[in-house]
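Posting this for the archive.
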Amino acid sequence: MALTRPALKLTQEAALALVQAAAEASTAMGVPQCIAVVDEGCNLLAFLRMDGARVLSIDSARRKAETAAAMGKPSGSMHAEVEIKLAIASDGRMTNLKGGLPIIVEGQVVGGIGIGSGTGDQDREIAAAAISRVFG
């Protein structure tokens, strides 16, 4: 019986690179964003509220990142019949808003990125662009 397992960890360097890549994609799109990066335990590693991004998107960006990291799949992809239950059970930490993507390296979830202040599709597009740029 194995008592431990190897774990990959997202570094602060990667978190900052993801924020920078997302900010560049946001600028190119013309939509200022709130950008949050968390590790696999949903601990905040990096955050940026771009000039002009909505203040109320600060929390939703972080929640999207946490949801993606915890679930290992994009936020906005849960069934409608469970979204309220999961939000209540997690004290509002889980959301079904689009814009959060898990960060997966070698098949292991190492964190999540959440984007908020545009439409859900814009947010998701920027998150995907950042992951693609940093992790190829």
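The chain has a mean pLDDT of 96. The first strand starts at residue 34 and ends at 39.
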